[in-house]
Specification:
Helix content: 25-40%
CATH superfamily: Ribonuclease Z/Hydroxyacylglutathione hydrolase-like
CATH class: Alpha Beta
Protein name: DUF4336 domain-containing protein
Largest sheet: 7 strands, mixed
Number of helices: 12
Organism: Pseudovirgaria hyperparasitica
InterPro entries: DUF4336 (IPR025638), RibonucZ/Hydroxyglut_hydro (IPR036866)
Structural class: alpha/beta
Distance between the termini: 43 Å
Pfam families: DUF4336
Strand order of the largest sheet: 1-2-5-6-7-8-9
CATH architecture: 4-Layer Sandwich
C-alpha cells in the first residue's frame, strides 16, 4: 500500500526549503492519504545552537536531503516520530545516522513490529503514565518545549522551537490545501472530490469551524478533558510560526490560528 501513498521518485518532487537559513529547513513532498486524498507530507530539520540536528517526521532520505544535512553540519542527533502515523522513514534515517536518538511514543514499536518495519532502538518513549516527567536531554530541552498528547487519536508529540518561535506538529492542526507539497508534481493540490472534502474540513480560513468540529467530535472525542489540558499547556508557549506535516506552513500569526482552532478545548480547560 505504501507505493500508493508516497511518490516513487521523491528526489524529483520534494521541495527542500530554508524557512530560516542555517536553522530550519522543511522537506515537503506529495502524500496521498488512502492513496487518494492529497494531504502532503513534510519533514523538518532544525539545527540547534550546538550544531546538532533534529529531524521531525522524517521523509525519504534522498541524496539531496543527505546533501542538505551535510551542509548543516551533518550531526543528526535526534530523529523524532511525532505520532503513530509519521514513522515510515524512521528506519533509513536511524540506519544512516546510527548515533542519533530516536524519539517516539507508546505503541509505536509494537505497530512497527506488526507492520514488519525495521527494528530500531528508541532512546526516548513517551507514555501516558509519565508524560510530564519524561525528558529528552539537556541539549534538546534547552531549545524545545514539548508536550505528549495521548488524548489525540494518533498520540501526538508537539514541539516548540523556542529560539525561532516555531511550533512543529504532525496531525494536531492541518492547513490545507497542500500547495507547496504538490508544487513539483503535474497535479493540482485541490483537484479530486475527496481532496476537496478534506480541504474543506481541514483548512484554517475564517472561523475554521469545520476543523474545530473535526477535532472536537472526532480526534479528541475519547478524552476531551485530557486533550484540553494539553492544548492549554501548548497555548502557554511563545510561538508565531506553525509547521504542520499536512498543508502549507503558517509563516506568521500561528498562535492566533492555534487559539482559533482549539477555542473550544481552551474554554474547556478553563473549567478544570
Amino acid at each position: 500500500m505504501t507505493d500508493k501513498l508516497i511518490p516513487s521518485d521523491p528526489s524529483r518532487v520534494m521541495v527542500i526549503r530554508d524557512v530560516i537559513p542555517n536553522v530550519i529547513t522543511t522537506l515537503s513532498t506529495p502524500f496521498l492519504r488512502f492513496g487518494k486524498i492529497k494531504i502532503g507530507g513534510r519533514g523538518t530539520l532544525v539545527r540547534l545552537q550546538s550544531g546538532s540536528l533534529a529531524v521531525f517526521s522524517p521523509t525519504a532520505l534522498t541524496p539531496e536531503v543527505k546533501e542538505k544535512v551535510s551542509s548543516l553540519g551533518g550531526r543528526v542527533k535526534y530523529i523524532v516520530a511525532p505520532d503513530l502515523e509519521h514513522h515510515i522513514f524512521l528506519g533509513p534515517w536511524a540506519q544512516f545516522y546510527p548515533g542519533a536518538k530516536v524519539i517516539g511514543m507508546e505503541g509505536l514499536r509494537e505497530k512497527r513490529a506488526k507492520q514488519e518495519n525495521e527494528d530500531i532502538p528508541f532512546a526516548v518513549t513517551f507514555t501516558s503514565k509519565d508524560k510530564d516527567s519524561v525528558k529528552i536531554d539537556t541539549e534538546f530541552d534547552a531549545e524545545f518545549d514539548y508536550e505528549y498528547v495521548p488524548a489525540h487519536a494518533n498520540k501526538e508529540l508537539v514541539f516548540n522551537h523556542k529560539p525561532s518561535k516555531t511550533l512543529i506538529e504532525a496531525d494536531l492542526i492541518f492547513n490545507m490545501p497542500a500547495t507547496e507539497q504538490m508544487s513539483r508534481t503535474s497535479e493540482s493540490a485541490t483537484t479530486g472530490i475527496l481532496t476537496k472534502i478534506w480541504t474543506y474540513l481541514t483548512n484554517t480560513n475564517g472561523t475554521a469551524l469545520a476543523q474545530k468540529r473535526l477535532i472536537w467530535y472526532g480526534i479528541s472525542a475519547g478524552d476531551r478533558t485530557g486533550y484540553a489540558k494539553s492544548m492549554a499547556k501548548i497555548n502557554g508557549w511563545d510561538f508565531d510560526r506553525i509547521i504542520p506535516c499536512h498543508g502549507d506552513v503558517i509563516e506568521t500569526g500561528g498562535k492566533g490560528i492555534f487559539q482559533k482552532v482549539m477555542q473550544w478545548h481552551l474554554k474547556l480547560a478553563e473549567k478544570h
